[in-house]
Amino acid sequence: MGGLLVLLAAGLIGLISATGWQETRAQLARLHLWQIALLLGLSLANYLCRALRWHVLARRLGLPTGAVQNIRHFLGGFAMSVTPGRVGELVRMRWIRRETGWAIARSAPLALMDRAGDLAVMALLLGGAISLAAGGIAGALPVTALALAAAIVATRPRLLAALITQTYRLAGRAPRLFARARSAARSLARFTHGPTLGLVLGLGLAGWLAEGYAFHLLLGWMGADIGLAKAIAIFVFATLAGGLTGAPGGLGGAEAAMVALLSLDGIPLDISIPATAVIRLTTLWFAIAIGLAIFPLAERAARKAP
């Protein structure tokens, strides 16, 4: 993770040096404190919508936890966002096990459904934004299709169980692990309740729309208004592309995709680079800061649990 951060910083510094430090500073100087506060507020709206979604899913799964517990688990997990594939966020399952006695295999569908909800909503947002935006985004169609396919598989208990079974037949190892995975997949049937799915998708849509709108505002403030639909499409595509790399928090991949797509749309580097840096600071790194603040509280509560 440290190496990735160093490489990311070196890449951004190199790009800024190539475009000129004065130009970059001038763009950053155009932003006022109230504008940064608004960006952070929209990011916070995203996290709260998704935390409420986590609570809805936890109640549907039958977890004996309250709203405060569930929101604490969800937000505290952001502290582990910068782990490969974001697997560190499974610390939420650890807190649940300590506080409720539920085995990780029993609560795992909650994390799976949460991630599937993000994939489904982001795929829908990307597809809708591309259809409304002038021009298109190269490579957006396969990324959208892949995200939707992953979301469909993850929310279809029989399909996911069959896929796990087929994978076990090919691997021929760890039968106990695959058996637990199949059991977790079957428990996803609890989430196929129509009103629950509608609420889950609605909360996710509202949350990710808030961050996409924040990116649109930021570009406008920097003098590069490319339209709401195109801004949302670039933001969502870059986020998905970064996630597909498996790098911690999508570091490197998301930033590279964002700068490249903005450049292809005619936005100069002296705007695209600071815009990318600011939106990542007010989204990913703001989430990590929230997680780091709540993480010790969640750890303390989990240790005190009987």
UniProtKB/TrEMBL annotation:
The chain crosses the membrane at residues 32-49, 119-152, 197-219, 231-251, 271-298. InterPro entries: L-PG_synthase/AglD. It comes from Thioclava dalianensis. The keyword Transmembrane helix applies. Its main location: membrane. It is found in: Cell membrane. Keywords: Cell membrane, Membrane, Transmembrane, Transmembrane helix. It is a multi-pass membrane protein. GO terms for cellular component: plasma membrane. This is Membrane protein.
